[in-house]
């Protein structure tokens, strides 16, 4: 149990800063940090030193935590070793049949041992519950819950058999057998539940990339926290944003839609003769007015910002997938191409907010602006800009045009896809 508890703490401490926006951690894991770094708490090289993305948990920290968790069991074993397990003889009511039993079964020490095992189960379940927000492969909450419930059920059944079999008229072999089976089962059930899926994965030869796990977890979280909670209204062709409308696509009118994973998609509708603005205004209720998009400060001596790291991992997944299929000579579906285009464009928009610490001025935020209209702050995003910036990322800037001129290259340009 001490190994499993230390393992859950280590995985949570290293992975949770990548998938959780909040830097706070549960009290039990904070207590573990203090226990394993008791001699480093006043030094800058402690376990909490530096950004959470660069935390280091070495083998010494793991051994310390396992020692602290195992201390109650070791103390109980040492105290019990000095106790003399005297043999006593019990008889039936007629005192004609007797049986020699160990005094341990009649003492309170047996109850203390069972209580310690039960508390270890509870402690492991609490740690697993706090780590339930980790990616699916690293999240062992369900496995630990299943193993704990199985141990509790099996030990209860064995205990009932032992109680029913107690007495001088019953065979002591049955009691000893079920007691041994219960101990062996509880000792092996939990490790097998947790390690067998990993062993099967290793035996299969499949390569597991942690970045893919984090991307999938980010996507799952973004679907839960959809834009619907932040967007109060979506207006198409609003006259109030006419001054910000760029060139519209020729052909079928499109209806923009914001998806949960941060990307922007469009559904075709209408006829070719109909032209419609591709502007969408997200009206948000904020107290601040004229708030500019916060630039991301990138430094060569600090870790990558969390928002930038999430976009990098999200874009890396589709790029690696398309590249791997191309290298293997496999065809790439339309949806994968569209996904690559959209995520690449979204990553380009994100890069425009980058500000390097070694430069004197930040990069231009291009066409992303904020405007104040009463109590609502409205963010105008041009989907024409999104398409043009996607080409800018793929082909690089033209010699005769800078990035600002990319916004006017929507009309008359070559189609990207054959369909």
TrEMBL record:
TM helices/strands, residue ranges: 111-131, 143-164, 176-194
Biased amino acid composition, Basic and acidic residues: 264-278
Annotated segments matching region Disordered: 252-278
Keywords linked to the UniProt accession: Membrane, Transmembrane, Transmembrane helix
The protein's name in its UniProt record: G-protein coupled receptors family 3 profile domain-containing protein
Organism annotation: Leptocylindrus danicus
């Amino acid at each position: 149990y001490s190994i499993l508890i230390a393992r859950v703490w280590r995985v949570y401490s290293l992975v949770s800063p990548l998938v959780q926006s909040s830097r706070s951690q549960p009290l039990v894991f904070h207590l573990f940090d203090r226990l394993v770094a008791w001699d480093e708490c006043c030094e800058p090289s402690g376990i909490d030193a530096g950004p959470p993305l660069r935390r280091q948990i070495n083998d010494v920290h793991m051994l310390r935590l396992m020692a602290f968790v195992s201390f109650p069991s070791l103390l109980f074993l040492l105290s019990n070793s000095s106790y003399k397990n005297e043999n006593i003889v019990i008889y039936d009511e007629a005192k004609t049949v007797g049986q020699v039993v160990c005094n341990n079964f009649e003492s309170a020490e047996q109850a203390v041992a069972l209580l310690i095992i039960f508390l270890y189960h509870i402690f492991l379940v609490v740690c697993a519950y706090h780590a339930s927000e980790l990616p699916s492969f690293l999240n062992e909450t369900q496995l630990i819950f299943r193993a704990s419930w199985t141990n509790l059920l099996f030990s209860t059944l064995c205990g009932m058999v032992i109680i029913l079999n107690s007495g001088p008229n019953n065979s002591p072999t049955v009691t000893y057998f079920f007691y041994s089976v219960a101990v062996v089962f509880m000792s092996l059930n939990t490790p097998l539940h947790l390690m067998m899926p990993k062993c099967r994965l290793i035996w299969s030869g499949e390569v597991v990339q942690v970045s893919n796990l984090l991307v999938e977890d980010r996507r799952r979280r973004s679907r839960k926290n959809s834009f619907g909670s932040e967007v109060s209204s979506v207006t198409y062709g609003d006259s109030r944003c006419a001054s910000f409308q760029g060139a519209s696509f020729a052909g079928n009118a499109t209806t923009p839609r914001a998806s949960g994973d941060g990307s922007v998609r469009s559904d075709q509708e209408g006829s070719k003769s109909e032209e419609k603005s591709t502007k969408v205004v997200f009206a948000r209720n904020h107290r601040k007015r004229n708030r500019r998009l916060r630039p991301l400060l990138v430094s060569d001596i600090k870790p990558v910002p969390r928002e930038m790291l999430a976009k990098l991992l999200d874009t890396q997944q589709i790029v690696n997938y398309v590249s791997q299929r191309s290298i293997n000579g496999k065809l790439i579906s339309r949806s994968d191409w569209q996904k690559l285009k959209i995520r690449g464009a979204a990553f380009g928009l994100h890069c425009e907010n980058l500000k390097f610490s070694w430069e004197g001025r930040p990069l231009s935020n291009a066409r992303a602006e904020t405007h104040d209209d009463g109590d609502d702050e409205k963010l105008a995003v041009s989907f024409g800009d999104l398409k043009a910036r996607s080409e800018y990322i793929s082909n690089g800037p033209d010699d005769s045009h800078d990035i600002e001129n990319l916004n006017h290259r929507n009309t008359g340009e070559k189609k990207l896809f054959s369909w």
